[in-house]
Amino acid sequence: MNGSTDLVEKLVGYVRSGVSSLDNGVEAVIIPPALYIRDVKSLASDQLSVGVQNVACWESGAYTGEVSAGMAKDCGCRYALVGHSERRQLFAETDAAVAEKVAQLLSQGLVAIVCVGETLAEREAGQAEEIVSAQVRKGLASVSAGDWQNVVVAYEPVWAIGTGKTATADDAQAMHQSIRGVLRNLGAPADTISLLYGGSVKADNAAALFAQPDIDGGLIGGASLIGKDFVSICQAMPAGSES
């Protein structure tokens, strides 16, 4: 929940210029608060996609304050976050709700970026892989064979978000490898699904993270508010990745 019209104009303009020189296989996505989607869309280039931070479990109806997947599509969004750690922690969003939102997005042909991740307590208890695997299975249980192309999974260890702590590249790779195995067990084309890492990614650690074989891109938090830092992270991407 950050932004203003002034920030949109300055940030999107800077990022648009910065990503114009990236390899054609690298895609950058800006996911602003819903009120600024049209502003971002109007300033974005073909290489800069737009998403929404959350959608409702319902197609339409008496749900004041909610934004539907169809509305997001109508405003020009291609992507949507689902199950972000803050939604899970602050708004009690469950795996069942995540699954319903994924279904809504896929019905509209949008790409669902499904966020999963464990807390510090869960990691210290040795439950990290179990927790994350369950979130993946439950959140994506109803995805049909033809819809996997519109699914992205973002691993965001809760203990590494906004704390300055970051999982080591090896730790992140191990969890991504586990997630890919869960996807394979679900019958998904696991090797073609993008897996993003989202835990305090910065310009100085991005290259090491993105060099891992199962880390296909990043879900960037605080660093995305600083144009220079976000562009530097995008430039750390190997060809064919997402940020």
Question: Can you walk me through this structure?
Answer:
This protein is α/β, with parallel strands linked by helices and 243 residues long. The chain has a single domain (5-235), classed as Aldolase class I (TIM Barrel), CATH 3.20.20. Helices cover 39% and strands 12% of the residues. It has ten helices and seven strands. The chain has a seven-stranded parallel sheet. β6, α9 (206-210) and β7 (217-218) form a beta-alpha-beta unit. α1 runs parallel beside α10 (227-235) and α7 crosses α8 (169-185). It starts with a helix and ends in an 8-residue tail after the last helix. The mean pLDDT is 93. Pathway: Carbohydrate degradation; glycolysis; D-glyceraldehyde 3-phosphate from glycerone phosphate: step 1/1; Carbohydrate metabolism; erythritol degradation; Carbohydrate biosynthesis; gluconeogenesis. Belongs to the triosephosphate isomerase family. Pfam families: TIM. This is Triosephosphate isomerase. It catalyses: D-glyceraldehyde 3-phosphate = dihydroxyacetone phosphate.
